[in-house]
Design brief:
This protein has 378 residues and is of the alpha/beta class. It folds into three domains: 5-61; 77-99 and 199-376, Rossmann fold; 101-191, Rossmann fold (3-Layer(aba) Sandwich). The protein has 13 helices and 13 strands. The protein has helices at 45-48, 101-114, 127-139, 153-161, 173-187, 200-204, 206-215, 230-245, 265-271, 298-307, 317-331, 337-351, 373-376, and strands spanning 5-10, 16-17, 32-36, 77-79, 87-91, 119-123, 142-148, 165-169, 190-191, 221-225, 254-260, 311-315, 361-365. The strands form three sheets. Strands 4-5-13-10-11-12 form a six-stranded mixed β-sheet, sandwiched between helices. A four-stranded parallel β-sheet has the order 8-7-6-9, with helices on both faces. Strands 2-1-3 form a three-stranded antiparallel β-sheet, with no helix packed on it. Helix 2 (101-114) runs parallel beside helix 3 (127-139), helix 7 (206-215) crosses helix 8 and helix 11 packs across helix 12 (337-351). It starts with a strand and ends with a helix.
């Protein structure tokens, strides 16, 4: 069965848009959600299990396009009882381009090509730029990547090798985004910034479908390193879709967002009982993927964290690096600092009795440590 997309709907105000046209943000300035015609019988779990092991196996609930794929998805879920009694690690570092960003860019570039776009642009702290460059190269589309000047060198070289035009900016990822916003209309760029187009979420949500397949159900909690938030939001969307498919009921995992002490707009807003996060001034952290001082989807993350009974917390750079090294030494998963942050957070939550010893907890390692040698050498 082919996917049936019905509309694009604003996550905040509910305004709908024609999905057959190129759309960015809603006129209210907030992200759009891809709505599918989904009901029991739309997608059979038994049939999905027989399909190739990549994210496009969930074809009926994906964007309606010809996939640009490098084999992304169906990443391993490692049992990690050496870290916690019933803890697991979802290792996104084995994706093409060595991070979970491959999922979102596969979907976004596929749709950009469908719409006839010849140039795409993204602000990136590293992995998103590398993924966009790779998928744009596969699609024959010109890629423009704007990165903070202190982005890990491996990520810059990756983009250059894939033929992208790399622009190094003195500042943060928000400054990179501002530069794209200023120039995109004149340059004719399809802007694939986090949540500023609706399709990267569609790739990221497949992590939720995979968890369900691999575990034979949902975990009690998942711990996710949060920058722009597409992974967290995407998986929540997947759980909603699975309920409409009849795969699950109303149960949901506790959604736990982890950020760095030096850049923590989501935990701050969560603690203060606010629905929208404030800009985190002078953001600093060795985890480049967590150096996002303001996310356009902040309210979506905060809503789903609260509805799920989850929480948002911070860890220090020293803690995340130490735990990334521990994860590698104890499990064989060479984690990035962001992946280490999930282990540091889980330890804190277990010590505070937020997690019980019997809870099934999934930690997400969002990228390979190979691309973060400078940070992991501290």
């Amino acid at each position: 069965m082919l996917p049936v997309v019905t509309a694009l709907t604003c996550f905040l105000c509910g305004k709908t848009y024609d999905h057959s046209l190129v759309q960015g943000l809603c006129e209210c300035g907030r992200p759009l959600r891809v709505d599918h015609d989904i009901h029991p019988g739309t997608m059979s779990l038994a049939e999905v299990a027989l399909r190739p092991p990549d994210m496009w196996r969930y074809r009926e609930v994906m964007p309606d396009c010809e996939p640009i794929t490098l084999g992304e998805g169906m990443t391993p879920l490692h049992e990690a009882s050496v870290l916690g009694a019933d803890w697991w690690i979802k290792d996104e570092g084995v994706n093409p381009t060595a991070s979970f960003k491959a999922r979102g860019m596969s979907a976004a570039v596929s749709m950009a090509r469908k719409f006839g776009s010849r140039k795409v642009a993204v602000p990136s702290a590293g992995n998103a730029g590398g993924a966009l460059a790779a998928y744009a190269a596969k699609a024959g589309i010109e890629a423009h990547v704007f990165m903070p000047r202190d982005t890990p060198r491996a990520c810059i070289v990756e983009c250059e090798c894939h033929g992208a035009f790399v622009n190094l900016v003195d500042g943060l990822i928000t400054d990179c985004a501002n530069e794209i916003a200023r120039r995109k209309d004149q340059e004719g760029w399809f802007d694939v910034s986090t949540l500023k187009e609706p399709y990267r979420i569609e790739g990221k949500k497949t992590m939720g479908y995979e968890l369900f397949e691999q575990l034979g159900g949902l975990p009690d909690a998942l711990v996710y390193p949060t920058g722009g938030g597409t992974g967290l939001i995407g998986m929540w969307k997947a759980f909603d879709e699975m309920e409409r498919l009849g795969w699950i009921g109303r149960e949901r995992p506790q959604m736990v967002s982890v950020q760095a002490e030096g850049c923590c707009p989501i935990p701050t807003a969560y603690t203060n009982g606010e629905r929208f996060a404030r800009m985190h001034e002078n953001a600093q952290t060795v985890a480049s993927g967590l150096r996002v001082p303001k996310a356009v989807g902040d309210f979506i993350m905060l809503d789903l964290i609260r509805v799920s009974g989850g929480t948002a917390l911070t860890v220090s750079d020293n803690e995340m690096v130490a735990c990334a090294r521990e994860m590698a030494a104890q499990t064989g998963v060479f984690a990035c600092p962001e992946g280490g942050a999930t282990l540091a957070a889980a330890k804190t939550l277990l010590a505070s009795h937020y997690f019980r010893e019997t809870d099934k907890v999934v930690l997400f390692n969002t990228g390979s440590g190979v691309k973060y040698l400078e940070a992991l050498s501290l």
